[in-house]
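Hello again, I could really use a second opinion on something today. I've been puzzling over a protein and I'd love to understand its fold better. I'm sending you its amino acid sequence along with the backbone structure tokens. It would help a lot if you went through both lines with me. I've dropped the whole record in just underneath, so have a look.
***
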Amino acid sequence: MMNSRITRIIANTVGLAAIAALGITVYQLGTSPVKEKASEEKTTETEQEENSMVDAGTNQVEADMNNQNDVIDPVSEVDKEENSTGENTEENSGENMEGIQDSDEAEDVSAQVSALPEVNFSEDTLMEWPVNGNILVDYSMDQTTYFPTLDQYKLSPAISVGAVEGAPVVAAVNGKVFSIEQDAQTGTTLTMELGNGYQAVYGQLTDLKVSEGDTVKKGMIIGYIAQPTKYYSTEGSNLYFAMKKDGKPIDPIAYLP
């Protein structure tokens, strides 16, 4: 009886073990493809997601590149503005330089004009002596005066001021050089317009420092005392100085200090 019971227990145990083993085998056979399929599906989904991400990334990159092409490059715009500004600046600079040059020329002309002495002689004008020396022959248009070299008496429309050869001669008053001539009696002779019909005549000159048309300021050196002409050989070197009003001789002494 006891042996039959033990035998039945062993048989049941073996049967349960066989059933369990069979169940495990069936379970393994049933679940393995599922895992592999699931793994394959998961792998496929992952690849699709990765491809989708790659495509999306590529599309995004292309879109960004297109957007960058469409967007104005601020650096390029700055360069263009700088180049444009540079060109405009150069043009404006050129125009400004021309304007400055024109302005400078106008100022130079204006300065020269303003620097020119006023030529406006009148009865109240006081001159200065054109050369230092003694009067050798006086002005005289009312009566005759004696000329030593000529040894005769005649009218004298000018004064002769004794001076050493080479002494500087200055403008007695503001004036404009009207003419420079060679005269047999007075040598190199300069006539200056003083304004209002007045003229001053300087004779016995050499090495002139002015030319016809020059405007000369009072006290400016206009030349030097030359050797006397043969008409003044006895008197010696001197300055021949005369004045006229409307072409007629007047006494220069009246306007000298």
Observations:
- The mean pLDDT is 77.
